[in-house]
Structures are given as structure tokens and as C-alpha cells.
């Protein structure tokens, strides 16, 4: 995800997505024979969440999760408890449609109170420069008779709670423990100006005074903001699968601590279900291909960012393509009624018309009027595999400037660059209300760990550079990033090597595996991701299940936007239903189906989502939450 940018959003949109009683921290117990795994360095934080607090919503409940940001008593010094509550809220609001028409809590899903404990630590992949966070949530009502561990990875580049709306909402009310990883990303932003980063509890500290989740090489001359996904030097995407498997191992070890009388917890006596969405979906598919120890009992991946050998297309390939061509292509008349493709009064966005003009000036499209230029840009994208349905949904990513944000960050990660030498002249800096670089606002900085998406711009951090003073200032950076992919020069080989390292491996044929993807996904189109993956598995003798859900697109949270949700359905209920079916197979002996009923939902329309609109199989519920 790739998802979650928020530059230029109106305030009411920021309340939809970030593009979130007591809780006592105690030292980790030192039970004999129950030491933490060797990949964990430093402390394991143990917190309890009960009266006025819980694991699933931090005591906010569904209404509180959907409401205004959870406040800090002292905005410059939020407590760990306040940061955690807001991080959980932000993670929910960045993924699920909790709006009044979205149907969460009525048509599908729920947010019950789930008291329990959390175990959290920094874990290290061999050779990594920076850790990834791992977290286990253990409900008090953990079902020891049906030992279940759900493991997930955050969507996009979000923080540790980024998978809670999928994995936590489904697993915790069922009595499963849930293990999370931020897969080497997250919002542990480092401010070079004051040399501060984020510690395990989410609060900030200066370099050298505490163990930080990310700190770049020290510099006395540079300011700006360093972001772990882009600047760790680890190319974390290449290790997503290892992050997930370590989170599963951490979960088993912490269950030993939580229930020493039932130890040991192993993959032989505890079923481990892996699930994730977007980048988290890609992460669990990577884990399935690396699972030589057969830790995983089943996998459900939603809209995965996945690349298979010699098929499909890499995210960086089609995202840099979209960054250049999509603004012009969306001006084609066929998108006149597409939400977010036109101004509120129906006018063409001037910046997009200027993109058509600039492409014409560079000889990339012909014609003397925008309509002809847009038609050619549209045809180019069609020839590269984009469907009109995916392009229409991509109007959201284009409007919110996600292509530039994603590709700038990912280029830096693939090439293992730091905050001062990002490709194409990009860099991150604290910005003021006018967008000019300056000093980080202390209140925004204190809340970064809870509020930020993991990929700037947003939350007072700007993406700067890669521009000129023309009427289409972002085009030079877009063309430069595209050239990194298309060049054969040795100086750009690091990027292509970095992308190649993210290719998924084949899972064992016996692993129950289900991919759920929206037919209208405009950020990770099925033609480039899930469909090549499914075809590849089947060509190798595998039997994966696949749901291509009509009218579902990438961002459930965007369904709260006026006019946008009318044309779509959410994807989360189909993920919950697939997990229900996997549960029935693992715990109730139901046969794993050779094929599954294909849902035939209808667009939500202008009213509140109705259960019948989803067309889920009649014998399946849409999950307990």
C-alpha cells in the first residue's frame, strides 16, 4: 500500500483516512525455558487492556473509532496509552468504511469489547539494519481447546496495528491470538533536525538515549525527515515473508509466556492462519512461499501486492506509468461521470489538462486538443493491460497524488538510499501550512507514531523535490522515476535488482490458500497482481481459490466519499467470509472446496449498505467482526 497518502485532503477526508481504561506496562516475565526468540533484541513490553480499554478498539467501540481523533491530554507529551489508542483508531479509519452508509456493524462486521494482553518487541531479520515491530494480542477468552494464532502484516506502510481491521476484527472475538508485524515500515519517523525517533511504546526520544525503531546515519549538516520504509537501507519488501514468519514465531513464544501451563505452543498443536490486505496480502503470500517449516495452516490474502516470476507487472512499473499517463487519460470523455475525475462543477482539472499538453509538447501524444490527447493516453494504458474499470477507480489515487508518493518512496527503498540521497532529487521535510519546508510542529511530531501512514506526504511532512517551475511541476520527477525502470544503465540497476528481490516463491501445494480481490481495484489491478499469481500457482499444480469481487476497489475507506461509495461495495466482508470458510475447514472438518461460489454483488447505491447487496454465500456469515 501502498495506500494511505493524505496530502491536500480536505479536513473531513483526513478524518476518514490518515494517505489513526488503563494500560499498565510491566517488564517481560523471565519464565524458565521461555526466553524470547533469538531474533528479538531488547525488552518485550507486556501491557494489560481491560477496564475502559481493550484489544480491538482500545475502549473506543465502533462509534468511538468512527469519531474524532482520540485526544491527548497534553498534545506535546502524549502518553503511551494515548498513542496506542489513537494508533488503533487511525488504523481502523485508514482501512474500513466506518461511515454512516458503509454498513459496518449492521451489514457485516462488529467491534465487540475484547479484554486481554499485548506483547510487543523489536525483531530483526538476519543482516537487517533496522528492526520490524512484532506484537501479539492475547484475548482473555483465548480458546485453549481450539488453539488459534492469526498472523498478519500491516497494509501499505502503516504501523504495527495496520492489520487490525482485518485480522484483529476477525480473530480476537473468535478467541484467537493475533500476531502483527509492521514488516519493516511504520511511522517511526526520525527528525534529523532534533535527532529524535520513536521508542517501543510510541513516544519519542533522542538518539543515544533509548533504543529506537529506526535511526539513520548521524549527520550534523542535514535536516529533514527520515522514514523507515524508504530509508532503512534494507529494501524491506524483499523480506516481507520473513517478517510474517518471525511474527508467527514470536506469537507462539509469547503464548508460552501467557499460558505457561499449556506450553509449548507449536505449529503442530496451534493452527496458524495468515491473512493480510494490500501490502499485507503480498506479505502473507511471500510468507507462504518461504514456509519451509510448515508453520502456516492456511492463508487468506486480500488485494495482494504480489509479483510472480515472468508474469504480471511490478508495482513500480505500472505505478510510474500511471503517474505519467493517468492524469491525461482520465480526461477521456468515458470518465466524465467518474467520481473524483472531474471538479465538483464538472470541469476538467486544470493540472490534468496541462499534463496532456506537456505530453504533447514532448511528442508522446498527438492532437491539438485535450480530447484527442486524452484518447491517446487512454489507449496507451489500455495497451499496457489497464482496464477502464481499473482506470476509473484510479481516479482516486490520481486525485490524491498517490502515484508520486508511492514511487518516490519505493524507489528509495529498492535502491537502499538514505534520507539525503533519494533518487530523482526527492526528499522529505517538515512543512508548514503553506507547504514550505521548516521545523516540525512539535504536536504533529509527537503524534507521528499514532497518526502517520508510513509514506509521506501528510501529518506535517512534505515530499519535496523532483519538480520544476513549469505549469506541470511534478512531471520531471515522474519521468525521472520512470527512467529508473526503463534504463539499462548500470547506475539504475540497483532499482531493478531491488524489485526482482520481491518476487514471490511457490507455496506448498497442500496449503489452503484463498485470494480475494476487487475487480475494480485501481491501485493494484488484478490483471497485474492476483490473476498472474493464481495462473502461476495453477500452472504449477496448485489449487488456490480466487474471488474476483465485482464493484470492489482498493480502498474501503474511500467508500465514504460522496458519490464514490455509491458505485462500489466494500472488500472486507469477503475477506471475513473467506476466513470463516477456512475456519470451518481447519476446525470443523469441512472440506476445502475445489471451487467457491462467485459473489454477484450490486453497487451500494446512495443509501446504507444492505446485507443482500453483498451476495455472500447463504450458508456463510460475514464473520464475527
Q: How would you characterize the overall build of this protein?
A:
This is 3-hydroxybutyrate oligomer hydrolase family protein. Pfam families: 3HBOH. Keywords: Hydrolase. Strand 15 (about 515-520), helix 16 (about 530-540) and strand 16 (about 545-550) form a beta-alpha-beta unit. The protein is an alpha/beta fold and about 625 residues long. It has helices at about 10-15, 60-65, 80-95, 165-170, 230, 240-260, 280-290, 315-330, 350-360, 370-385, 390-400, 400-415, 440-450, 475-485, 495-500, 530-540, 570-590, 610-615, and strands at about 25, 40-50, 115-125, 130-140, 150-155, 175-180, 190, 195-200, 205, 225, 270-275, 295-300, 425-430, 460-465, 515-520, 545-550. It has two domains: about 1-315 and about 425-465 and about 500-625, Alpha/Beta hydrolase fold, catalytic domain (Rossmann fold), CATH 3.40.50.1820; about 315-425 and about 465-500, no CATH class. The strands form four sheets. Strands 1-2-3-4-6-5-11-12-15-16 form a ten-stranded mixed sheet, sandwiched between helices. Helix 6 packs across helix 7 (about 280-290) and helix 8 (about 315-330) runs antiparallel to helix 10 (about 370-385). About 30% of the residues lie in helices and about 15% in strands.
Give the termini separation: 23 Å
- SS field, number of helical segments: 18
Based on DSSP secondary structure assignment, what is the total number of beta strands?
Answer: 16
- Provide the β-strand percentage band: 5-15%
Main sheet strand line-up: 1-2-3-4-6-5-11-12-15-16
CATH-level-4 superfamily name of the largest domain: Alpha/Beta hydrolase fold, catalytic domain
Category by helix and strand content: alpha/beta
How large, in whole angstroms, is the Cα Rg? Answer: 23 Å
Work out the helicity level. Answer: 25-40%
CATH topology of the largest domain: Rossmann fold
List the domain count as a whole number.
2
Supply the CATH class of the largest domain: Alpha Beta
CATH architectural label of the largest domain: 3-Layer(aba) Sandwich
Characterize the biggest β-sheet.
10 strands, mixed
The shape is globular
Mean pLDDT score = 93
| Low-pLDDT sequence parts | 3-33
Amino acid at each position: 500500500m501502498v495506500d494511505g497518502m493524505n496530502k491536500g485532503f480536505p479536513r473531513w477526508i483526513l478524518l476518514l483516512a490518515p494517505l489513526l481504561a488503563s494500560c499498565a506496562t510491566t517488564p517481560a516475565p523471565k519464565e524458565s525455558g521461555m526466553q524470547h526468540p533469538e531474533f528479538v533484541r531488547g525488552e518485550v513490553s507486556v501491557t494489560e487492556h481491560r477496564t475502559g480499554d481493550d484489544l480491538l478498539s482500545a475502549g473506543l467501540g465502533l462509534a468511538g473509532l468512527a469519531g474524532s481523533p482520540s485526544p491527548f491530554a497534553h498534545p506535546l507529551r502524549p502518553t503511551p496509552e494515548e498513542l496506542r489508542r489513537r494508533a488503533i483508531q487511525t488504523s481502523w479509519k485508514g482501512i474500513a468504511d466506518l461511515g454512516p452508509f458503509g454498513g459496518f456493524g449492521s451489514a457485516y462486521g462488529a467491534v465487540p469489547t475484547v479484554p486481554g494482553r499485548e506483547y510487543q518487541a523489536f525483531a530483526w531479520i538476519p543482516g537487517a539494519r533496522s528492526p520490524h515491530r512484532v506484537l501479539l494480542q492475547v484475548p482473555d477468552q483465548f480458546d485453549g481447546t481450539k488453539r488459534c494464532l492469526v498472523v498478519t502484516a500491516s497494509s501499505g506502510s502503516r504501523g504495527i496495528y495496520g492489520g487490525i481491521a482485518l485480522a484483529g476484527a476477525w480473530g480476537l472475538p473468535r478467541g484467537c491470538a493475533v500476531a502483527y508485524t509492521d514488516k519493516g515500515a511504520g511511522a517511526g519517523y526520525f527528525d534529523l533536525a532534533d535527532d529524535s525517533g520513536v521508542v517501543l511504546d510510541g513516544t519519542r526520544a533522542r538518539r543515544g538515549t533509548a533504543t529506537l525503531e529506526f535511526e539513520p546515519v548521524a549527520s550534523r549538516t542535514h535536516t529533514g525527515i527520515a522514514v523507515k520504509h524508504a530509508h532503512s537501507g534494507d529494501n524491506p519488501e524483499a523480506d516481507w515473508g520473513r517478517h510474517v514468519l518471525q511474527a508467527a514465531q514470536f506469537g507462539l513464544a509469547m503464548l508460552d509466556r501467557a499460558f505457561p501451563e499449556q506450553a509449548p505452543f507449536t505449529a503442530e498443536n496451534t493452527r496458524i492462519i495468515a491473512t493480510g490486505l494490500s501490502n499485507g496480502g503480498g506479505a502473507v503470500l511471500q510468507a507462504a512461499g518461504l514456509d519451509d517449516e510448515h508453520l502456516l495452516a492456511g492463508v487468506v490474502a486480500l488485494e495482494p501486492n504480489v509479483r510472480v516470476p515472468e508474469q504480471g507487472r511490478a508495482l513500480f512499473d505500472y505505478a510510474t506509468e500511471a503517474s505519467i499517463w493517468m492524469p491525461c487519460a482520465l480526461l477521456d470523455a468515458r470518465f466524465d461521470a467518474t467520481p473524483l475525475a472531474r471538479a465538483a462543477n464538472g470541469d476538467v482539472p486544470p493540472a490534468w489538462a496541462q499534463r496532456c499538453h506537456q505530453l504533447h509538447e514532448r511528442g508522446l501524444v498527438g492532437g491539438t486538443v485535450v480530447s484527442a490527447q486524452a484518447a491517446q493516453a487512454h489507449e496507451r494504458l489500455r495497451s499496457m493491460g489497464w482496464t477502464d474499470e481499473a482506470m476509473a477507480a484510479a481516479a482516486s489515487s490520481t486525485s490524491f497524488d498517490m502515484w508520486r508518493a508511492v514511487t518516490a518512496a519505493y524507489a528509495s527503498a529498492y535502491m537502499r538510499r538514505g534520507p539525503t540521497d533519494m533518487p530523482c532529487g526527492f526528499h522529505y521535510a517538515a512543512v508548514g501550512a503553506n507547504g514550505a519546508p521548516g521545523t516540525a510542529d512539535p504536536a504533529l511530531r509527537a503524534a507521528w507514531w499514532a497518526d502517520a501512514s508510513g509514506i509521506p506526504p501528510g501529518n506535517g511532512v512534505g515530499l519535496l523535490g523532483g519538480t520544476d517551475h513549469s505549469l506541470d511541476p511534478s512531471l520531471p520527477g515522474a519521468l525521472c522515476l520512470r527512467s529508473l525502470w526503463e534504463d539499462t544503465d548500470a547506475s539504475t540497476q540497483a532499482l531493478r535488482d531491488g524489485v526482482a528481490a520481491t518476487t514471490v516463491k511457490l507455496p506448498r501445494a497442500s496449503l489452503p490458500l484463498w485470494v480475494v480481490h476487487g475487480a475494480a481495484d485501481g491501485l493494484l489491478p488484478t490483471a497485474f497482481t492476483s490473476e498472474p499469481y493464481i495462473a502461476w500457482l495453477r500452472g504449477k499444480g496448485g489449487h488456490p481459490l480466487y474471488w474476483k469481487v465485482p464493484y470492489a476497489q482498493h480502498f474501503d475507506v474511500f467508500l465514504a466519499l460522496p458519490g464514490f461509495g455509491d458505485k462500489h461495495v466494500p472488500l472486507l466482508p469477503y475477506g471475513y467470509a473467506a476466513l470463516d470458510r477456512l475456519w470451518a475447514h481447519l476446525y470443523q472438518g469441512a472440506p476445502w472446496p475445489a471451487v467457491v461460489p462467485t459473489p454477484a454483488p450490486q453497487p451500494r447505491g446512495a443509501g446504507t449498505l444492505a446485507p443482500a447487496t453483498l451476495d455472500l454465500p447463504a450458508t456463510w456469515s460475514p464473520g464475527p467482526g
